[in-house]
Design a protein that fits this description.
This protein is α+β, with helices and mostly antiparallel strands. It contains 11 helices and 21 strands. About 2% of the residues have low confidence.
Length: 410
């Protein structure tokens, strides 16, 4: 039986470990936090994305369509709260209508069903609180409890005989013949025999390290051409007086040059309305509070030429996102383009999330999944949205790619 280690306990890592165990691997998942899904998997808007936005033919477009089907089926089988409620993508003024129409064609190319272009009056029958020049109805979009998904997959892995070692940081990756020696710098919380070891020898390693994936890759001797630049997104909860005025999901027409979807309104699976996020440079890869910097991480980002080239390409967008970060008044005004009447006082404290965005030296953002192979090792160097939605589907693809890495092992 081949031995495998998965580094990273987010949804993509968990689903990959589950897939390996289902295929007969003896798998150990290594997670540096004390619980799985501690970062991007639980710091998001809880939306099930169906593949509207993605470039036709891209891996994430294919994974989104397959992924939402597999995720909703999984949630149904395991009684995980979820709902396919649909959403509206709103053109705030007539200048956005051509981009909305292009989005409609893209969604059709990706195989989405039931897409419908609506007049302002038709849109207001679905979301009475909006103001728009037109809207796109996306009936296959939904909401879900992702932390519950993570806990359920943990149970699956254990039932399949896999091991999950929490509070376990990978400190080194060394090739030894056909095996990889994975150095561990802290004891895990798994009480089973053998957990006291400070290393693990496996035939296959899959790096699903998310915010730390490029650093994990460098431990193995691989030098990624990209770097993870963390973008912090702030969410707010909308005052309860708005709860009956926002029915489901309301999104703006996004900027096609950027992977960020813009500030939107989301009905949460357990009640309430969440609004956000903005997208601005985080002061650390895991610094969720705005004024809580991690100085080595911040230095790493600020000395990366790609970040400065990105900001030079998009100065207006960068400045606007900074204003959204600093001012609730600006944040409320941005929401007011979609739903008029929201005031700064209606924005109550909410969560923040950090997006692990891979960026190239020239300042371009990697918009698709980015995978890199070494003999006996696979690195997931960018796992953008719909990473959570498509985690079960992408896991099957990753294990197929990992098999290639095993076959390359001399």
């Amino acid at each position: 039986m081949s031995k495998a280690a998965v580094i990273g306990g987010g949804l993509v890592g968990l689903a990959t470990a589950r897939e390996l165990a289902q295929r007969g691997f003896q798998v150990t998942l290594l997670e540096k936090e004390s619980r799985p899904g501690a970062h991007q998997s639980s710091h998001n808007s809880g939306v099930l994305h169906c593949g509207l936005y993605y470039q036709p033919g891209s891996l994430k477009a294919r994974m989104a369509v397959e992924g939402i089907r597999s995720m909703t089926a999984y949630c149904g089988e395991h009684n995980i709260p979820h709902e396919i409620c649909g959403k509206l993508v709103v053109a705030a003024d007539s200048s956005e209508l051509p981009r909305m129409e292009a989005l409609l064609e893209r969604g059709k190319s990706n195989g989405l069903l039931g897409l419908e272009q609506l007049s302002p009056d038709q849109a207001k029958k679905i979301e009475p609180g909006i103001r728009c020049a037109g809207a796109l109805r996306v009936p296959q979009e939904g909401i879900v409890d992702y932390p519950s998904v993570a806990r359920s997959i943990v149970d699956d892995i254990k039932e399949l005989g896999g091991r999950i070692w929490l509070a376990t940081r990978v400190s080194s990756l060394q090739k030894s013949g056909k095996e990889w020696r994975v150095g561990l710098s802290a004891p895990g919380s798994d009480p089973r025999p053998g957990r006291e070891a400070d290393s693990l020898r496996v035939d296959l390693v899959i790096n699903c390290g998310g915010l730390q994936c490029d650093r994990i890759a460098r431990l193995s001797g691989y030098q990624p051409e990209t770097r993870i630049v963390p973008f912090r997104g702030q969410y707010f909860r909308l005052h309860p007086r708005w709860h009956d005025r926002v029915k489901n999901l309301i999104y703006p027409v996004p900027n096609p040059e950027l992977p960020f979807l813009g500030v939107h309104l989301t009905r949460m699976i357990h009640g309430g309305i969440e609004v956000g996020p903005n997208a601005f440079l985080a002061l650390g890869r895991e610094s969720y509070r705005f004024l809580n910097p991690n100085l080595p991480d911040l230095w790493d980002a600020l000395t990366f030429a790609g970040l400065w080239r990105f900001m030079a390409k998009f100065p207006t967008v960068s400045f606007h996102e900074l204003l959204l970060t600093l001012s609730r008044t600006v944040f409320a005004r941005e929401l007011g383009r979609l739903v008029p009447g929201i005031l700064p006082g209606d924005l109550l404290p909410g969560i923040s999330g950090i997006r692990a965005q891979a960026m190239r030296q020239d300042g371009t953002l990697v918009q698709d999944f980015d995978l890199a192979h070494q003999p006996g090792m696979l690195h997931v160097l960018n796992a953008p949205s719909p990473g959570a939605t498509a985690s079960l589907a992408i896991a099957g693809h990753l294990v197929g790619e990992a098999q290639k890495a095993l076959d390359q092992n001399p």
